[in-house]
Amino acid sequence: MSGPARQVRRPISALRMAQIRELSRRHPLAGPAIRELLAEIARLRAEARRCEASAELYRRLTPVLRQVLLWHAQGVQLADMAERLDVSTSTITAYRGRISTALGVSTITQAVGIAAAAGLISVEQIASGGGTEGKP
After folding, report:
1. What angle do the packed helices 78-85 and 89-103 form, to 10 degrees?
2. Cα–Cα distance between 103 and 8 in angstroms, integer?
């Protein structure tokens, strides 16, 4: 990583943050701009943590498991999933168990919630309905 991306990932030390806050107190005109900058830094840090968590969850699931998770979010029935993947319904049930285990939850519905919160499944994908993508 180089350039600006490397700078964003470099942590700001507590001492540096204290210096920035002190500067904002001593220079009232700079204060609002500095507070806005600090808020933006906090937002970017939170977004970076969310992206890293999302990438980790994504790596835990195979393409087939991600497809089954999406289909579940879209309300596709087990039999339809099995037909699309040319497997048995018990295989789909096993896939759902592997998804739940990989995401550290006890139900597939919780897995959908985790995936949606992490950005692995978007509202647009769910709304597209029925997973018209076919086989993964």
Report:
1. 100
2. 28
What single DSSP character describes residue 86? T
pTM: 0.58
For the chain, 136 residues long, give each residue's pLDDT as a single digit of tens: 444 444 445 556 667 777 777 766 776 666 677 677 777 777 777 766 666 666 777 778 899 999 999 999 899 999 999 999 999 999 999 999 999 888 888 888 888 888 887 777 887 888 877 544 444 5
CA distances from 28 to 20, 22, 34, 36, 102 (A): 12, 10, 10, 13, 51
Cα–Cα separations (whole angstroms), residue 17 to 23, 36, 41, 54, 97? 10, 13, 11, 28, 45
- Which pair of tokens denotes residue 38? 């600090």
Q: At what angle do helices 63-74 and 78-85 cross, to 10 degrees?
A: 150
- Give the pair of three-digit tokens for residue 107: 């139900």
Structure tokens given for 33: 């701009």
Distances (CA, A) of 75 to 43, 55, 59: 34, 24, 24
